[in-house]
Amino acid sequence: MRIKIDTKERFKVITILEPLLTARLAAEFMEILQKGHEADSSTPEAFTHLVVVMSEVQEIESETTQSLAAIQQEYYAHQHSFVYCGLQPAVEAAIKQAGVYDMMNITPTESEAWDILQMEEIERELLNDSDA
Questions:
Q1: Model confidence over 10-22: pLDDT tens digits?
Q2: Which of 50, 61, 79, 82 is deepest in the core (most CB within 10 A)?
Q3: Domain that residue 40 falls in
Q4: Are 56 and 18 in contact (CB under 8 A)?
């Protein structure tokens, strides 16, 4: 699977460079995300907060939509942010048809995804302060 990983100050941006996201490629992608999620957060291999840019993906196999939603939910369960952005119309339609669109954090642009990550970080800090 062809992806590009950019490390920002507080998160990583993963760009999927495949025009068709098949079930096989999605499984590879999920494995990469899982390994990054399980890595020690102090190491460069760790993925804690992610933006996944899907602007190159023109089509997606229907069975992969559930996997994309599940991995995002796993990140959120561990208090980590995860946002998809740049969905092409056919990909967005497939996700909506699968019934998982409302479960996913999706923005039109990468800039908006960054904004969500920052807002979620502030929210976590405020919640942690109120718990103390």
A1: 899 999 999 999 9
A2: 82
A3: 3-131
A4: yes
